[in-house]
Structure formats: structure tokens, C-alpha cells
Write a structure and sequence with these properties.
There is one protein chain. By secondary structure, this protein is α/β, with parallel strands linked by helices. It folds into two domains: 11-104 and 219-228, D-Maltodextrin-Binding Protein, domain 2 (3-Layer(aba) Sandwich), CATH 3.40.190.10; 108-211, Periplasmic binding protein-like II (D-Maltodextrin-Binding Protein, domain 2, 3-Layer(aba) Sandwich), CATH 3.40.190. Helix content is 27%, strand content 28%. It has helices at residues 22-30, 52-57, 82-90, 113-120, 131-134, 144-149, 151-157, 173-182, 196-199, and strands at 11-16, 44-49, 67-75, 79-80, 95-104, 108-112, 139-142, 167-169, 189-193, 206-211, 220-228. The strands form two sheets. Strands 1, 2, 3, 4, 5 and 11 form a six-stranded mixed sheet that branches. A five-stranded mixed sheet has the order 8-7-9-6-10. Helix 1 links the parallel strand 1 and strand 2. 38% of the residues are buried. Bound molecules: prephenic acid. Prephenic acid binds next to helix 1, strand 3, helix 6 and helix 8. Prephenic acid is lined by residues 16, 21-23, 72, 75, 81, 105, 143, 145-146, 172-174, 221.
Length: 234
């Protein structure tokens, strides 16, 4: 018999980190008391992983029998999330979906303060930065899904990023934000991520160059909360 049902025993939820990912926001929405979690007062422990594949695979570990994983499954603009699809298709044990959650996803174009200052010097640029200023951005980092969800914006507003190596896939939107926050290469770099990475001070020195840059206003990502079905349940 299972002893791992949420509500019956302490359990862990794996999600795609670092702080500021959309996955993190969904996890906090599902487990709001986690915010003030004093370990003893909550039955839930949220565990960040670096990639969606690692997040998903963590439910297969024999040492993690009380483990759920929160996975982005599909997006209304850009379709299926590849890493999740590959995991579900290749999992050696059946995977059960416990809950489905939808999140309206609004991406922001983030830059670090140095880049922001340089963009402000471009003719006609002020707050918010003008279209003319955005055209000097050379590279944009994000998760493959976010780059896909903003493709038309990038094509029309950041033409330099259409060149080879101009759009760089990394394992999450928040990782992209943290990378550009630290970037001192002198290249004009940006990230597509949630504006909270800048506005809630999650990564220091980030500025919102433009908010709401997803191609569609009705952009929604569906997440699933899953677990590996145990012996005896199969
Ligand atoms: O990178 C993140 O912030 C995630 O949570 C991943 C992810 C995804 O894989 O679809 C989740 C929601 C958005 O669609 C963009 C990225």
C-alpha cells in the first residue's frame, strides 16, 4: 500500500530552479505555506533541480519514495516541452499525474544595469527603452520554450539576435536571468524571463527593458505534478 499520498505524510516536490523560474512560481502557488516553511510546520519540502530532465528523473530514485515532480508539459504558443515529453515517453516505471495547473506566462526582456545604461544612450531612448535602443542587443539567453514563445518579438525587435549564436538556450529562464546579471563581457546581452527576477531583487542589478514580450497575450503553460507509481499500484 502507498504511504506517500500528499496530505498523509511529509513529502518532497522537485521543481526546475533556480529561484524565479515559472516552475518555482507554480510550486509556491501550490504550497503557499512553504514560503514561511520552518521545516517542522510544513509537510512539504521543495527541492530545486538544474534541468527539467533531472527534476523528472528524481522521482525514480529508490531513495526518494515520497517525491513528486512539478513539470512544465505544454505551452499554448510553442507546444510540447521536449524534456518532459522525452521523460514521459522513456520512463522505466509508469508515471501518474496527480494535478494539472495552468499558468499565464508573461515574459520580460531583462538586461543588467550596464547594458541598460548603454541602451539609454541610444538616440531617442528613454524609459521605457525605445525600439531603436533594443535593436542594439546582440545576444538573448533563455529556455528554449521562452525563446519560442517570443520568436516574433525577437525577429522584429532584436534583429542582431537572428545571427548564429544570437539566441542561446539554457536550462531555465531564471538561469538566463542570473547569467546576464553577472555578465561583464561587454556584449549587449539580455534574457527572457519572468519580471520577478528583476523586480523582486532575486538577481541583483537586473532591469526590465521591456515587459510582456511574449508573442501572444493568451500565452499559457500547463504544468503537471507527477509521481512514479509504486509497486503494487501498477
Ligand atoms: O524556465 C522556466 O522558468 C520554467 O519554468 C520552464 C518553462 C518551460 O519549460 O516551458 C516553463 C514555463 C514557460 O513556458 C517557459 C519555461
Amino acid at each position: 500500500m502507498s504511504t506517500t499520498r500528499p496530505g498523509q505524510a511529509a513529502f518532497e516536490v522537485a521543481y526546475l530552479g533556480p529561484p524565479g523560474t515559472y516552475s518555482h512560481q507554480v510550486a509556491l502557488g501550490l504550497y503557499p505555506d512553504y514560503r514561511d516553511n520552518q521545516a517542522s510546520s510544513s509537510k512539504v519540502t521543495l527541492i530545486p533541480y538544474d534541468t527539467i530532465t533531472q527534476t523528472a528523473a528524481s522521482i525514480l530514485s529508490a531513495s526518494a519514495p515520497r517525491r513528486l515532480a512539478l513539470l512544465p508539459l505544454k505551452n499554448s504558443t510553442h507546444g510540447i516541452v521536449k524534456e518532459t515529453e522525452e521523460f514521459l515517453a522513456s520512463s522505466p516505471v509508469p508515471v501518474e499525474t496527480i494535478k494539472t495547473v495552468e499558468l499565464a506566462v508573461r515574459h520580460a526582456l531583462l538586461v543588467n544595469s550596464k547594458t541598460y545604461e548603454r541602451l539609454q544612450q541610444v538616440k531617442d531612448s528613454d524609459r521605457p527603452l525605445s525600439d531603436e535602443a533594443l535593436k542594439s542587443i546582440e545576444k538573448v539567453y533563455s529556455h528554449e520554450q521562452a525563446l519560442g514563445q517570443c520568436r516574433h518579438f525577437l525577429d522584429s525587435h532584436l534583429p542582431l539576435t537572428s545571427s548564429q549564436d544570437g539566441r542561446i538556450n539554457v536550462s531555465s529562464t531564471a538561469l538566463a536571468a542570473s547569467m546576464i546579471a553577472k555578465d561583464d563581457s561587454g556584449t549587449m546581452v539580455a534574457a527572457l524571463a519572468s519580471d520577478i527576477c528583476a523586480t523582486k531583487g532575486i538577481y541583483e542589478g537586473l532591469k526590465v527593458a521591456r515587459a510582456g514580450v511574449q508573442d501572444r497575450d493568451d500565452n499559457v503553460t500547463t504544468f503537471i505534478l507527477v509521481r512514479a507509481r509504486e509497486e503494487g499500484q501498477r
